[in-house]
Amino acid sequence: MNLRTHSKKLCIGALLLSSIIGPNIANAQDMMGKTGTATLWQGIRQRQPESEMPKGKAPYQIAQRVAKQNIPTKLVPAQHNEWIISDGWELAEFSQVIEAKESIFSLNFDTKDWYNATVPGTILTTLVNQGVYPEPTYGLNNMAIPEDLAHKQWWYRTTFDLPANTDNKRVRLLFNGINYRAQVYLNGKKIGNIDGAFIRGDFDVTSLVKQGTKNVLAVLISPPNNPGIAHEQTMKAGQGLNGGQLSLDGPTFIASMGWDWIPGIRDRNSGLWQDVRLQVGGEVAIGDPNVITNLPLPDTTQAKVTILMPIKNLTNAPVSGKATAKFEGVTVEKSYTLAANAESTLTFAPEEFSKLNIKNPKLWWPNGYGAPALYNLELETSVNGTSSDIKKTRFGIRELSYELMVNSPSKGNHRIAYTPVDAESNGKPVFNYEKVMLVGNPKSNQTIPTIQEGIDESKVFEQLSNEDPVGHFFVFRVNGKRIFIKGGTSGMDEMMKRVSREKMEPYFQLHKDANFNLIRNWTGENTEELFYELADEYGLLVWNDFWITTDDTIDPNDHALFMKNATDVVRRFRMHPSIAIWCPRNEGYAPEGLEPQLNEMIAKEDPTRHYHGNSRFLNSVNSGPYGFFKDQSRYYTQVANGFNTEFGAQAIPTANTIRKFIAPEDQWPINDVWAYHDLHHTTHFFQDFMAAVNSYGEAKGMEEFSKKAQMVTYDTWRAMIESWNSKMWDNTTGLILWMSHPAWPSMTWQTYTYDYETPGSYFGAKKAQEALHIQMNLPDNKVIILNNTREDKKGLTATVTYYHIDGKEYFKKSGKFDAPANQKTECFIPQLLTRDIPRYTLARLELKDSKGKVVSTNDYWKNWGNLEANQAMNELASVKLNIAVKNLRIAGNKSIIEVSNPSSSIAAAIKLNAVNKANGEIILPAYFSEGYFNLLPGEKRFVELNLPEGTGAFSIATDGYNIEQSTY
Length: 968
Description:
Elements: H1 3-21, E1 25-27, E2 74-79, E3 82-86, E4 90-93, H2 94-98, E5 115-116, H3 123-129, E6 154-160, E7 170-175, E8 181-186, E9 189-195, E10 201-204, E11 215-222, E12 276-281, E13 284-286, E14 290-294, E15 302-313, E16 319-327, E17 330-338, E18 343-348, E19 357-359, E20 375-383, E21 386-395, E22 400-408, E23 412-418, E24 431-438, E25 447-451, H4 457-460, E26 461-463, E27 475-478, E28 481-483, E29 485-490, H5 501-513, E30 518-521, H6 529-538, E31 541-545, H7 559-573, E32 579-583, H8 595-605, E33 610-611, H9 633-639, E34 643-644, H10 655-661, H11 672-676, H12 686-694, H13 702-725, E35 734-736, H14 760-768, E36 772-776, E37 783-787, E38 793-803, E39 809-819, E40 823-828, E41 841-848, E42 854-862, E43 882-890, E44 894-900, E45 907-916, E46 927-928, E47 933-935, E48 940-946, E49 954-959, E50 966-967
Parallel strand pairs: 29-30, 29-35, 30-31, 31-32, 32-33, 34-35
Antiparallel strand pairs: 1-24, 2-3, 3-12, 4-5, 4-6, 6-11, 7-10, 7-12, 8-9, 8-11, 13-15, 14-15, 15-18, 15-19, 16-17, 16-20, 20-21, 22-23, 22-27, 23-26, 24-25, 27-28, 36-37, 37-40, 38-39, 38-41, 41-42, 43-44, 44-48, 45-47, 45-49, 46-48, 49-50
Helix pairs in contact: 5-6, 7-8, 9-13, 12-13, 13-14
């Protein structure tokens, strides 16, 4: 037994022994997180003094008021007999209606002083679109928008005609999301309230709608009760603490009062942020279905599909009819009878319908492990042979399992696998998140759950070996296969909730291309249909939080309101195969009283997924760190450990991106505008980060600073992920980056930037997360292979070559290796004599398959611990690359770019961009297979480029550390 293996077993043994000698059972709701404070953070109580407010040289942009127009309402078809009420919405302050001479419900009501409203959209979105306020993402424009928007009530109003052929039909209005409270009126009658940002409003308005004349729909929106006061980031005031009063109002967008990655959103994202729909149908409506898929693992050649179809009688009389479910050539139906106003759930089970035993199913896999196959499902109810309601949706055939360590009185601490669809738990919670067991070093606060009373482990769990080196840490399985988590985080999709498929889909494509397989919906800020649809399509598992932040911050006031929203969210989105886990909050256990309600609700409403009681500590480590380490070997020796849901660092945009959101006069030197856009200059080892950037020579301007910063961020984000790779399944089980997606133009915690540009942080992460990857660990320089696929790779050749700064080779070592599926393979440590090591080295790692094809290349600039040696990069001669576009637009919008280095110097950190030939602007999004790569003298490389549909003629622009900026 080697020392490394022995130490692992000692560690696992200590975990088990502690549960027997002296159980460290803790009350989870009393445990504190990072701060350990006795008083919960409530936010600042007054605005900062003027001396601490952000100031820039550039003035705020001046908004140009848009003239009011008379825009007719459109009914845009969405599903069968369902329309989105679009376009003709208008918006006004509450007082304008009170002071008006006519009723808001009159068809003659004068709205000339109202705004044309953007729906779906927030109040602020409308006011920006109408030229009342400037675009808040630019410079300090957000400071020009008053905070009192968060204290105002607003009216939305529209008129609409009923579609044809609605006689004797039931008519309903569906609100897919408002924030924060709404009173809804139709034709002068109040039809109901909607409370909370994530619950739908569903109203039967059959008796109120009018045929042959306009119907007047009016909605009074009230903001959250406790909007709080936003901290404004500056060089003097720093980043401040996160959130505060708004946390009392969860379920809402708690980050919109300001966080360390987003400023205070002045209306707190109040408004009709999701669409409003008109539904017309018969007597029986379909509710939120669920599809449960079960695989006889390890066999994946067959699957059992169970369809749960809730139906509701909308009338005051009994009704009978038929229900039908169809997908991919399968049709099943059954009869039903409902009493007046009754509800029921119809079950189409494989035991009753043999067609639901699917042979050779197309499985849904996470990105990198297989295709995320989806099935189209159509549900229909009919009465007396006439269609009553039709619902079209999608599902995936896949089975989720989870490995974790738990504690029980009879077995102490022990490792189990839990597959919810196979567990005989009778719809009851399995894990207890009120009593948890401390494991390991008590100072670490790491815990495992206990088991609920009455749970028969033999019917719920698969018992695993306690000798597994991953110890107590969490593991995801999909379709029976362990998934090494390569996760990202979206704190909020967009700061003003300006989301559409056109805007959001490129972000998911960028995640897929960077080899992410999970995205975290942090505190539920992204809870909307589009987010889950795209995750389904791009194979991204979703870690889904609810709307509570860190356990050192105040908790929601209204538990009943919270539960109504949470229940509706689970019912509404449980069909999405991407959702892998429900979590009550960010960084903490659910509050006392709320925890058992959430646990019980999810066990009842979604018995196919795991509910995990805490995003950190519980079967995981503490979240963080969040900044640059000057000694990157510390990522390997001190940080890489187990499962971590938050780990990030600085991520400076490219100069092209910075120019888009900072005026020229504020671009240099670093100032309040940079601080306002999240450059945290007082925290997260910022001085070390700046020292690393300036180790290439002190930057004299924004462009130079950004260029040098890309060298640092590429290495940093790669090192963070590769440190986890280095211990794959020996100890580490997954890493979720903080963050992968920005909510606005930011200077930190992002892979790509808001405009779809891909700086060093993106390509560093993309490189480290390759499906088949070769890397060099720190501090020992060991070369290893990561095979993150389901297929064994045999006959691989791993090579490391060291080059002087002039491009001359001085060391080379190769070896043949087999790389088993879903494992790391250790290769060798390059052995160099100390006297042979120059002060600066390019270490190239290359992996070839059994046919000699290069499948992974990974370059490291090695300064051997001496930052000053980085200035050797400035000795590189300027290089003008040769560029040729090969096979233009093959396979749709794919082009192959041949990049060659004709010089005698290394071409360092090459960054390509596609440029619109018509206007000279960089085309974004543009999906390049490589970025910030190096070419040796005389070397060439082929880079794939995918551009969006409809992109016109383009050129290729080159940039890089010593690359002549040219366009080809």
